[in-house]
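Checklist before submission:
- one chain only
- standard amino acids only
- sequence pasted in full

Submission:
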Amino acid sequence: MGNISVAFCAYDRPGYLAGGPNTWLRRLLQDLREMGFEVHPLVIHSGEVSECPLVGFLCEQGFPVATLARSEEPYVEGQVDWLLRQARKIRPSVFVANLVCPAFYATPWLRRAGIRVVGVFHSDEPFCHTMMGRFVAGEDRWRFSASVAVSQRLEGLLAQSNPAQIPVRRIPCGAPLPDTFREPGSKNASLRLLYLGRIAEEQKRILAVAQAMHRAASSIPCVVCEIIGNGPDARILEETIQNEQLAVHYTGPVDPSDVHATCLRGDIFVLLSDYEGLPIALIEAMGCGLVPVCLAEKSGIAEVIEDGVNGLIVSDRDESFVAAIRRLQEDPEFLTRLSHNARTTVEREYSSAINHRRWADLLNELATNSARTSVRVPWHLRLPPPEPAFGSEDLRRPPLCERLSQQTSEAWMRLRLTIRPRARLRAWLGFPSPH
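Returned file contents:
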């Protein structure tokens, strides 16, 4: 098993603490290193690298982290070039593209060098569906060597979109089990509802979550609600709580190392997203003994939660949700039974120990009999057209004529400012050019 070199790709940015995939990487990479793998993180980041939490954590743990700033190379072509050069340097047996768009596009040149490329499908959303269409079901040269799905639904979708029958494994992200877990209180004690995760309207519907919590707290005695996390809509959430006077407390983000202590503040974990893959925060909360109350959906929620056994699945964010919270408040024995069953579910199937071993088995399988050669970095990358579902992560370099025109325009402006003092003064004062 030892001496197998594996590269893992990731994105990072300042303050990015609520991202499930990066929380999972922190734990997985440490465990794989303890199992004897040579782990090489490759991180493309926005903002100052010193403020990026995943990069900082991995450096503190002694990993040989290689980083590329988007400000230095904003276009996919340059990012692919950088990844290929890193792969040529470290010569990994397996290259885990994860959710990194330029890593997908590096696939043909990595496979040609005998390196196995793995795509990881974390969520039931257009981004991952597009991944399947191009890098599993698409042309052979762009196909991954193997795919990992975090849920049964994603595994099934991959199986249906797999004409070449590349290996597909279902490996949930999992979470470590704490030594202690939450013991629910007695009847009429405060019942603490907790949302922990990304603060976003898209997918997570965070404003609807806050309003659902408020309805429960307003109509059921002794219910306390807390939202924890960060994300693009944190400011909107704070304003909504204040303007609508919601009975919800927003406390901002927590470091992944403090998640267990944070979960132990709650009794019920609330997740009312439009769609998910298999949320790491859900597994972490259940491992701490919190009872999940989740909105019915077609992806990973129903895989983990058996309604009325280890949690409750509700049909809406209104009456059904409030009724579920009232039932748990009025029946402490039922709450306690669900709490113990939730933790047992994680112990049996969704712990880090179980799923990190599955990753080790897959990496060993892929590395067996791999004949590697030097990675060839082409002087000109021929990529397929950009995918709208990848958004800004698939930003392409402008055509040569457009770049030359822009450079000429910038050079002419610099020349004018140099030879015409009045134009330089006008530009410095922010006045528009008279022409």
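Reviewer check: Residues 97 and 103 are 5 Å apart (CA to CA).
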